[in-house]
Amino acid sequence: xxxxxxxxxxxxxxxxxxxxxFELIExxxxxxxxxxxxxxxxxxxxxRYGIGExxxxxxQPCHDEHDAFTAFxxxxxxxxxxxxxxxxxxxxxxxxxxxxxxxxxxxEAAVLIQSFAASLRxxxxxx
Length: 127
Description:
Helices cover about 75% and strands about 0% of the residues. By secondary structure, it is an all-alpha fold. It has one domain (about 5-120). The longest helix is centred in the N-terminal third of the chain and has 30 residues, at about 20-50. It is elongated.
């Protein structure tokens, strides 16, 4: 069992390098953090200057996160590792208080079905 582990471990960075899903997950993570930070800044601004006075602070980070989620949602995986990462990230988003709404309220069923069907074709699953 120990002789096979290095081969398995060496495959993961290669899969991450060739499967766009990994980059899209990281992009969404970063845009989500930026969006949450902008909401904190907006809240501080509004406490100082009044409600509604800082709404523009979070507008672009919100759009950036939306675009990143939309791209992630639609992109089919090209490797088994990418497909597993995509499923795990959707599960992670669904289980977090700040992000579960993305899965329950935003994820489009038709887009998800197309994305996962294309992912399965990409990794060699035939219908």
